[in-house]
Amino acid sequence: MTIRDILEKILNNYLQEKDKSFKNNEFARLLRSGLKEAVSDDFLAGNIRTKGSAGKGNWATVPWIGLFDAAISTSATKGFDIVYLFSPDMSSVYLSLNQGWTFFNDTYGRNEKNNISKVSRYWQSTLANRTDRMTTEPIDLTSSLQNKNNLVSGYELGNIFSIKYDSDNLPDNDQLLIDLKDMLFCLNEIKADLINEKNLQQNIDYILSLDLNLNPLLNNNNIKK
């Protein structure tokens, strides 16, 4: 099974599966296995882990498949990761360099939205490994929802870079793999730039202390062609 096979299967079947029981559902198991069947052992070497989620006890509004560096993050709730975020109506999926929303929600209270957005802008301005296929445009996971879900809004706010794939126009698997590897380069760059990879809050508090409008080192020209 390839990355394209997995994405296509989820996009084409998730809404129908949501009408079935969540418990012991084979489709949910496919999501939880992440990309293990789609990428080589070399790709998942070292600290790199993969897993996904169709929800906890009930079907998720936005299912996801993630890639994590265990040295800086082991789940989508905290730290930095690469994640495929499926739109609620399954019209598209975003490959996103993202952040764990739950950490910001639990740590910063009423300032969580401003803080996670500021951290996103910081990395958008500093990462040199961004390619021209990646965009800093906001991702849209909530326009098709009648009621905004706080967690889903957190995915949107935590986005650093993304590549959008429409369900009716998925790239071939070779391109998907290239995009994923390029995102991994960006994740590795974040890891290398952290002042303390064992203390997430120390890193976040440092970024939040910066005046991004006045720092001359921050620019939007770090794009690899």
Your description of this structure?
- It contains 7 helices and 7 strands; from the N terminus they run ααββββααβαβααβ.
- It has 225 residues and is an alpha+beta fold.
- The protein has a 5-stranded antiparallel beta sheet. Strands 5-7 form a two-stranded parallel sheet.
- The model is unreliable at 214-221 (pLDDT under 50).
Brief rundown of the structure:
By secondary structure, the chain is of the alpha+beta class. It has helices spanning about 5-15, 25-30, 100-110, 110-125, 150-160, 175-195, 200-210, and strands at about 50-55, 65-70, 80-85, 90-100, 130, 160-165, 225.
Question: What keywords describe this structure?
Answer:
16% strand, alpha+beta, two-stranded parallel ribbon, single chain, 225 residues, 5-stranded antiparallel beta sheet
How are the SSEs ordered, and which strands pair?
Blueprint: H1 3-17, H2 26-32, E1 48-53, E2 64-69, E3 80-86, E4 92-99, H3 101-108, H4 112-126, E5 130-131, H5 150-158, E6 161-166, H6 173-193, H7 200-209, E7 223-224
Helix pairs in contact: 3-4
